[in-house]
Design a protein that fits this description.
Length: about 210
Amino acid sequence: MPVRHDPMSLPPEAARGSVRRITVVGEEILSRPCQEVTEFGTAELSALIDDMFLTMYVADGAGLAANQVDVDLRLFVYDCPDDDGVRHIGHIINPVLDLPDPGSRRLVEDSEGCLSVPGATMTVPRTDRAVVRGFDKDGDPLVIEGTGYFARCLQHETDHLIGHTYLDRLSKRDRKDALRQMEDRREDVFARRERKAGSLARQDGGTPGP
């Protein structure tokens, strides 16, 4: 999910992280369900979350799933506004999506992109409310409720962890259109990410990760 962030207001996780390569649609890890996290409170898990935050910001993302950095675990991070402008920042592990009952849900068709489909945007219907239940990095239970754009983000990232991208919600015709957009724009997107990684590294006085 794409969004622009103010580099002066990034959370501390980003300062601790290193940039990782973002996987691209067509890579096998994006098309299979991710594995449950079974060990909590580890240095490796904390480092992964830090890396995912920084990688997300370099790519101007509102959310990022672990398989998007080539890690086969049920985990995503997010820094996403809702439709009221409230900023939501965090991570969730082993998430389970809870949508409203069909009779009470409202589908909203809006533009959606993906960091693993660089440069493409398409209209995707999503419910306007969503709840995700899971755990934080220490194994404590989490319940995250979202409306509007944040609800869209929660649904988008949870989809990743079951092996789906938003392309899987499109018609064949629209999917081909999105892939054409990606082919036309991906190199520009990659160049922009490299420039931003370099800019953040200069601000920190260091160098970006691989």
